[in-house]
Amino acid sequence: AIPFYNNSAMGHLALFNIINDERVSEIVILDDFSDVKEFEKLKRKVAPFHKKVKLYRRDKNWGAFANKIQVVDLCDSEWVILLDYDNTVTKTYLDSMFAIPTWNTECIYCSDWAFPHFQFKELSGTVISFSSACDMAVNDSLNGPFFNAGNYLVPRSKFVRTMKPYWNYHVAASDVIFANYIWLSNGGKLSVVRGSQYIHRIH
Fold it and tell me: Which of 22, 52, 122, 168 is the most exposed place for a label (fewest CB within 10 A)?
């Protein structure tokens, strides 16, 4: 599930490493009412991959948070990688996620390394609850970049059901932190998967 807005120059980067991987059954992109020119450029870039890529466009801009919820909802699979359009998952990321014996719908599965900028290796293998996140904040050990990195494997139905009541909220640069707060405060957990790096771009 790839939310997109107004950056056609980077809009195809998320497709690297997943377009030909058989473990990824579909790629759903939702455009949040970008400029027409930007959307048309994106459409041309993904056109060769139409058998696997489904491209949708909103009729008005709802913002990043609502766009992420809806793009997950548009997916057919019950488990979905929610991936920013300017980032790229690696084969290592997919291998690590698929090495988990059973995916738990109470968990969002998170990477332990947003390569090359943000390492979260100290959290590898841990499961974070609302209580343990609060302890991190109180003890001043909360890793801010981790809670704002995103690019997660999520259980579609539970994720949408948990987030949808809040999708009218407009959150600027911290929509992932907001989503994590909602998920954790509703009893969900964040499971940090060892060796699950993805490529994270800063621009």
Answer: 22
Please, what's the b/e burial string for 125-139 (b: 16 or more CB within 10 A of its CB; e: otherwise)? eeebebeebeebeee
* Total-model pTM: 0.94
Alpha-carbon distance of 130 to 136, in angstroms, equals: 10
Positive or negative, the CA dihedral 192, 139, 169, 199 is negative
Euclidean distance between CA atoms 50 and 53, whole angstroms = 5
Please name the residue that has the structure tokens 């920013």: 84
By the 10 Å C-beta count (0-12 exposed, 13-18 middle, 19+ buried), 98 is classed as exposed
Length of the chain measured in residues: 203
Residue pair 13/85 in contact (Cβ under 8 Å)? The answer is yes
Residue 172 pLDDT > 80: no
| Contact by Cβ (8 Å): 171, 150 | no
